[in-house]
Amino acid sequence: MLREKPRSGCAINAALEVLGDPWTLIVLRDVIFGGRRHFRDLQLRNEEGIASNILAGRLRKLVETGLLTRDDATRGQKAAYTLTEAGIQTLPVMAALGAWGVQHRPTTPELAVRARILAEGSPELVDDLMDELRETHLGIARENPKSPSVSERMRQAYEAVRSRESQAG
Amino acid sequence: MLREKPRSGCAINAALEVLGDPWTLIVLRDVIFGGRRHFRDLQLRNEEGIASNILAGRLRKLVETGLLTRDDATRGQKAAYTLTEAGIQTLPVMAALGAWGVQHRPTTPELAVRARILAEGSPELVDDLMDELRETHLGIARENPKSPSVSERMRQAYEAVRSRESQAG
DNA sequence: GAAAGGTGCTTGCGAAATGCAATCGGACGA
DNA sequence: TCGTCCGATTGCATTTCGCAAGCACCTTTC
């Protein structure tokens, strides 16, 4: 799944060797924005319909490359995946991808609203969300917790678009 | 190569369906940072050793999705690829990926220097480089051309690291 | 004006990854 | 102890990757 030797020493290539496939960032997105930390949750609630073997492979790769950790639970137990600092720091990549996607590809309003919030509020908003993730996943308390939190603002914006859509449609 | 229907309406997914594979962003990187606009140039000078069929497929896909245009030259003639506005706007994604790669993956100093310059000078520097690309590829003159240009600064930084390296042995 | 070399690709083929459905062994609750 | 949930694994058909070779067309050279 992951090459032993990098194709080159370029930083962009180095990032792509870990993140550059059609599924890795999707899984990471669900952990970061969806707050999902269990296998079943990541599979069944995934928008794109990821297959279980693909998900299993990606989770293994993400743990290998140090973007996630997995608490050691034996087979059959509820295992939780946790973001590492390296995983949290993929957030600017997500924000940039989302901003590009909203502008240049077709998207649905409900799902695009998060990307728009991140793109318009960046970069302070991205930093705030990273701090939130550090608190949730790494147990590092925030210095200046803001209210409402970024994730709460995103959830509210998502609901607002949904209700507006359902009235219109 | 490209799906007809998106897997979902999510902006991040939409971006990944175009950019989320191991080669597309590598090709785009060589066009943006390497200034390469011809097939042979993109193939033979590529750091990662891209195969010609892979390159041909990616160039076709990039034209289809509107990130590049190709001047209509028949087979055997020198065809040039040109960035579109959508292609130019992948630069923030590149910068974010490069910044992550430098911090979290092994890289060589010569090739990482570009990513470091972009990460430290962002976001004004990224905007300047996008304006340079608009001038080179779209023929849109810059309002306030700075000297030295961003690409020139990058080239100089690359050379500086190289000579430092060769002295050190 | 024929030969040599450069242009952007295409083809063939073995290896690997993807995508889908079914299944599995352990833990847990009743 | 039975049924259900858990995180996966297995089998298999299809697609993509990655490498080497070749191809059609153009330009340059002598």
What does this structure look like?
2 copies of one chain form a homodimer. In chain A, strands 1-2 form a two-stranded antiparallel sheet. In chain A, helix 7 runs antiparallel to helix 9 (150-168). Chain A has 169 residues and is mainly alpha-helical. The model of chain A has no long low-confidence stretch (mean pLDDT 90). Chain A contains 9 helices and 2 strands. The first copy, chain A, folds into 2 domains: 11-84, Orthogonal Bundle (Arc Repressor Mutant, subunit A), CATH 1.10.10; 90-168, no CATH class. Chains A and B meet through helix 1, helix 2, helix 6 and helix 7 of A and helix 1, helix 2, helix 6 and helix 7 of B. Chain A binds a DNA duplex (30 and 30 nucleotides) through residues 1, 21-23, 38-40, 43, 49, 51-57, 59, 73-79.
